[in-house]
Amino acid sequence: QVVIHPFKTIELQMMKKGFKMEVGQYIFVKCPAVSKLEWHPFTLTSAPEEDYFSIHVRIVGDWTEGLFNACGCDKQEFQEAWKLPKIAVDGPFGTASEDVFSYETVMLVGAGIGVTPFASVLKSVWYKYCHDATNLKLKKIYFYWLCRDTHAFEWFADLLQSLEAQMQERNNADFLSYNIYLTGWDETQATHFVVHHEEEKDVITGLKQKTLYGRPNWENEFKTIAERHPGSRIGVFLCGPEGLADTLSKQSISNSEADPRGVHFIFNKENF
Q1: Spatial contact of 237 and 243, defined as CB atoms under 8 Å apart
Q2: For residue 106, what pLDDT is reported?
Q3: How many whole angstroms separate alpha carbon 56 and alpha carbon 46?
């Protein structure tokens, strides 16, 4: 199945047939109708609990443009499944972000395209929570999304919106705290939106939690979380650039206490 999202992003959903995956993994994809030789890596955006596996593809070059057209996304009418092109899949590969489930509290940081694996992680956490909340060790997620603008990841904002709505229905809006930082904006551009800041939902993402401008003050974030969860082991997971990895690694060390009974931040990263 092919789903068209805003800003030239398509989602390919494929049936699982002997395909086993973990959260945060990726696959290589080939579409012979576009190129007989090219393989391209894509992060899986589905959760292991779903009966299909999916990737989101942004249309930014010749190959992705070819895939877009081969899937009939340039046509107005509905495409029958048998008209869709054959897709070859190799994988999945990559370290699983399974460790997320071994902590009570986690900080998840996705920067730019690095937000993609967290679609799989957040969906899987929610499936596990709905299915058997009492057995789920994970009790609190602090999620940070850093991007220049949200356009390329409109589909991800949609995912957050549906999670937000489901958590409110179950009276557990506190399970996930997220902060979206628009790094490509400065205060002068932001002031235009601050006018609407009192409105119930954010004007850019339509989410209840407000979008922030610029970059996070990591020292403050770590100190606040340490105060809220004294004496606990907190997993810090990053999918993003090397510079940010250095910053988060240093903050994890400097905000961990020497006393084994104190708070400890354990840093994990995945690179793209």
Answers
A1: no
A2: 97
A3: 10
d(CA 49, CA 86): 24
What are the chain's domains? 2-93 (2.40.30.10), 98-269 (3.40.50.80)
What distance in Å separates the CA atoms of residue 230 and residue 227, rounded to the nearest whole number?
6
Strand pairing partners for 44? Answer: 55
CA dihedral for 65, 69, 75, 77, sign (positive or negative): negative
Most confident of 57-71, 91-105, 156-170: 57-71
Q: Give every CB contact of residue 176 below 8 A, 6+ residues apart in sequence.
A: 122, 141, 143, 163, 164, 167
- Closest among 243, 21, 251, 229 to 114, alpha carbons compared: 243
What's the pTM value of the predicted model, to 2 decimals?
A: 0.86
pLDDT at 203: 46
Residue 201 binned pLDDT confidence (cut-offs 50, 70, 90) = low
Collapsing DSSP to helix, strand or coil, 241 comes out as coil
Whether the predicted pLDDT of 271 surpasses 70: no
Strand extents, DSSP E, 16-157: 26-30, 40-43, 52-58, 88-93, 105-111, 140-147
Distances (CA, A) of 236 to 91, 144, 156, 221: 26, 11, 21, 12
pLDDT tens digit sequence for 176-195: 998 989 887 665 555 555 55
Q: Could you give the C-alpha distances from 229 to 100, 153, 235, 256, 264, in angstroms and in order? A: 17, 31, 12, 12, 10
What pLDDT, on the 0 to 100 scale, is given for residue 169? 87
130, two tokens = 């709905």
